[in-house]
Write a structure and sequence with these properties.
alpha/beta; D-Maltodextrin-Binding Protein, domain 2; 2 domains
Length: about 325
């Protein structure tokens, strides 16, 4: 009798605790986000990049949807390591979001023997935001009007022509072009893409393969897009041919952007932000940015982002191995 009473008490206590926990979780979700607490969006790239422009548009959208203030925190450097580690170590309370690119999530793991973050285990996916083609952008001192002409000249003059890199993805796409064409061109590393673009505009290097949003401010300085890396032409520059059209058979490379919370963020808060983010990315001005920057919406549900990311890791792993750029054993 006494044991039966004790078991009954234990069951009742368990039910009460579960109910309290559920109630607490629901209450937290209903009160999130607190409109007096700013949400920080960490971008592991500098101002003037497409990731920065997209983050600012998304931040505005989140504010309009939720009423919470949002600030963008650019933490650039070290192939995105600085920003990624800052986001990883942030409190998992829903007030620090990471908006990053394929560079940190699926390229870096193959370029570096050791990362200060795990792109899968250290973050909870909120959803993809956009995908973007990249363009072969040449400087004003480069005489070639087409990528075919540039490749032909590089083939005839091994080691003469230079291309810049400022992120892992940009660096790998340049190396992919070298591999696909069999030409010898010199890769010049940069801390960030705006610096690479400045040197392209000034004639210090010949070209950079980067998205239109990052290259756009330099088009007024004489920089020109002569080819796009995607399988189809870009709606932003429909007159610019693809590299496939320029004779580089099978060439295709597309960058993408996604948002995350630090691991261990409460599921109720994650669910709330997923809904807010979905609505924020459908604001009119976000669509206008997509059009101006040549981006396209990338609608992959958060539950499918892990699978997509793993598939992308395998794809870029092959590219890194083909370019012989992985960490030395």
């Amino acid at each position: 009798m006494r044991n039966s009473f004790r078991r009954a008490c234990l069951r009742l206590t368990s039910v009460v605790l579960i109910s309290l926990a559920a109630g607490s979780s629901v209450a937290w979700a209903q009160s999130y986000p607190d409109k007096s607490t700013p949400i920080k969006v960490v971008v592991p790239f500098p101002a003037g990049t497409s990731a920065d422009a997209l983050a600012r548009a998304v931040a505005r959208g989140i504010t309009e949807v939720s009423g919470a203030p949002v600030i963008v925190d650019n933490k650039a450097g070290a192939d995105g390591f600085i920003g990624m580690e800052a986001a990883k170590l942030a409190r998992p309370d829903g007030y620090t979001m990471l908006l990053t690119t394929s560079s940190t999530q699926v390229v870096n793991p193959h370029l570096h023997a050791k990362l200060p973050y795990d792109p899968v285990l250290d973050f909870v996916p909120l959803g993809t935001v956009a995908k973007v083609p990249m363009f072969v952008n040449v400087g004003p001192s480069v005489p070639f009007k087409t990528a075919r002409e540039l490749i032909g000249a590089a083939r005839a003059n091994p080691g003469k022509y230079t291309f810049g890199g400022g992120t892992s993805t940009v660096r790998i796409v340049g190396e992919m072009l070298k591999q696909a064409t069999g030409v010898d061109m010199l890769a010049v590393p940069y801390k960030n893409l705006p610096d690479a673009m400045m040197d392209t505009a000034s004639g210090r290097i010949d070209f950079v393969i980067v998205d239109a949003a990052t290259a756009g401010p330099f088009y007024e300085k004489g920089v020109r897009p002569i080819a796009v890396t995607t399988a189809a032409r870009s709606s932003r520059f429909p007159d610019v041919p693809t590299l496939q059209e320029e004779g580089v058979a099978g060439f295709e490379a597309t960058g993408w952007y996604a948002a995350y919370f630090p691991a261990k963020t409460p599921p109720s808060v994650v669910a709330a932000m997923r809904d807010i983010l979905y609505k924020a990315t459908r604001r009119r001005f976000v669509g206008e940015l997509f059009t101006a920057a040549g981006m396209e919406p990338l609608d992959i549900a958060a539950d499918d982002l892990d699978r997509f990311q793993r598939e992308e890791m395998e794809k870029w792993s092959k590219a890194v191995r083909a370019a012989n750029l992985g960490p030395k054993q």
